[in-house]
Input
Amino acid sequence: MCNLAFKRRTLIRSKIRAIIGKYLDDRATPAEEQLLTHWLDVISAEGTPSDVLTSGDKEQLRRKMLQTIRQRTGQPARSYSIWKRMVAAAAILLVVVAASWWIIQQHTSRPVAWLELSTGIGEMKKLVLPDSSTVWLEGNSRLKYPGHFKDKRDIELLYGDAFFDVSPYPKSPFTVHVDSLQVRVLGTFFHVRAYGQLPIEITVNSGKVSVSKHDQLMGLLTANQAMRINWNDYTFLRMEVSPLNISDWMRREIVFDNMPLRSVLHLLENYYRVKFDIESVPDMQITGSMPATLLPQQVFNILEELTDHQVIVEARGGNKVTVRHK
Output
C-alpha cells in the first residue's frame, strides 16, 4: 500500500480515537457527538466487511450508543462507565475497520494509469517514482511506469540506459522489466543498459539484484558485479567491474569498462547525432571514460587516445563517421 493511503488511514484512526476518548471523559462537544453519530449512520447504510458484524448487530450498536450519548443519566456511575467503555471499544473497532476497508477499496479500485518518459539523443532526465525511488534516464531512452503502485512496484525499460536508486520496501520488491527479463531488487543502486545494438547490461553499485528470464533465475549480482546478456539467445557473462559512482553519473560521464570498440561506438550514437560506419573496426576492448558534454571532434580525439592510436576517426558528410585502421 502506498505511503499516502497509509498516512490517511493512520490519520482517520487517530481522529476517531481522540473523539471517542473525549466522549468517554464527558468532554465531547455536540458537534463531535454528531460526527460520531454520522459515522455510525454511514456504516449502517453502506456496510463493512461481512466477517466483522451483521447488519442487525451494527444497527443495535448504533441505537444503544445513540441512547447512551443522549441520555447521560439514569445509571450508576460505575456501571455507566463500564458500559460506555464497552460500547465505545466496539465502536472504535467497527469504525476503524470500516474506515480502513473503505480507504483500501478506494485505493485498490482506482485504475492504474501507465505513463511513459522518453529522452532525446544526448538528453538526460530525472524521474521520482510514486514510492520515492529515483530514476536517471540517459539519452535516447524510453521508460514506462505506473502513476501509482499497488501491491507490486513494476516498471519497464523499453529501450535505453537508466540508473536506479530504489527506496527499500522489504515486502514489496522493485522490478524492472527489460524485454523478457526481470531485474528485481528490494533497495539498491543499480544500472540497466538495454540499447538494441548492444548487449543488455546490468551493473550493481550497492545491495543485491536478481536477474531472471520468465521468472527463471539466471543469477544474483552484488556490489561491483555486472551481467552482460545477448539479446538473441540470452547467453550471459558475469564479471567484476569498477564501482559505479553516482556523482560521475550526475556529471554525465560516459564510462567504458572493458567494452568492445563496436559497442562503444554504438553507445556514443545515443549521445551524439552521428552514425558510425563500423565495418572495419578492429576487435578490441576499451576501458576509460569521457564527459558526455564534449563536442564530437573532442570525442573522436579521445577515442584515438583510448585505442592507443590503433584507429582514426574521420567525419564525412555531416553526421556520417567512419572508423578505420590508421
